[in-house]
Amino acid sequence: MIAPPEDGRLRLTILGGYLGSGKTTWLRHQLYEGGFGKAHILINEAAETPVDDTLLASQSAGVTMLSGGCACCTGKDDLVNALKALCDAHSRQKPEDRKTAQIVLETSGLADPAAILDAIQQDSVLVHHIRVAEIIVLVDAMNAADQLRTEHLGRAQIEAADRIILTKVDAVPDAVLATVVATVRHLNPVARIEAAVKGEPFALPDLPAVPPYDLPRISDGGEPIQPTKIDIPDDVDWATFSIWLSALIYARGDDLVRVKGVFDTPAGPLLLQAVRKSVQPPELLPPEAAQRQNQIVFIGRGYKGDDLRRSLDYFTRG
Amino acid sequence: MCNACGFPTRPGHWTDAGADNAGDRLRLQMRRAQILNRLLNGYGFKARPPGHGPGFALSSFSGRTTLLPDLEAVWQEAAQQLGHPIDPLDPRFTAAEPNS
Question: Which residues of A fall within a CB distance of 8 Å from B20?
Fold first, then answer.
């Protein structure tokens, strides 16, 4: 992905994954290795279980525990307040410290990362102070099959991810691992897939090409998602495209899991990113960084890819 | 919000990115109203720039006019009046040959 320019906003990495997928283990190891620099860590626990956070505290700029419920629903206000406090502290730092400051949010296993993204977008202060750098989702390779068959949440977490890390991969045979990888790729074809064992990076072996798990339709989930890449024709300008996309997201936001791409506008190339109904404030890219201009990827369900093209064509030509 | 030009409409509404000077913003607003009308006509709506700031004035066939801050609000208001959202993937927009 193209790295957006520094805009002074505080970077936030959202770390998600189902209950017991190994989020804390992985994060501890990353911090120990210096993976996130001196990041401030926010930890959300849905249940009020005591967590041994001493190691995290010693390796980070600070740790804040949010234990008043899951941050994507009941604990949303706590999360927003904690983030605001961090933004406030950030704005008082020296300029040289400010550049390296970042936040890592470890969500509860019950959180939908898209809902957290939405909470940040909806807040008029946070939207100007926080840039979501990456959504990392951990998937437990041992239990993925059961979770993905029955839990809509497990699928939603994977769909929202930029990077997926399979954990406990040493505990499953290659045949199972291959099927898990195929299933995850089927659910989110654009995310980078990596693996880890007890937090340490693990190179995925050469896996046989196998079909993904047959995921049954879940009442609150729906059919699996499909990616569609659209090369925007030259005669589609930003005015047309923004009208079309805003209408599409309004009407089909629940089915459009991801929209991602770069669009050329009068002000310069814009990096567009949306997760369901929540569109991140587009970032203006330096002209030379945008090689994949006017190519937008739609990942979603409930429509035909060709219909997207035909509809955009209709909006353009009338 | 700037008193003179009315921008930004609301912190971070994404459709207002892409035009960072007053001229571009005005052009974008005019052009958007044109395109919107092409689309909204079929539903009995008419959109125009409100004349003094961002957003659109949306008039419906009943004569009711509503001032709306941005595109998202336009879709929301239209959906409320129609009873369903205007869906760009509706067959009328995805037929192989445009019929208007």
Answer: 266-267, 284
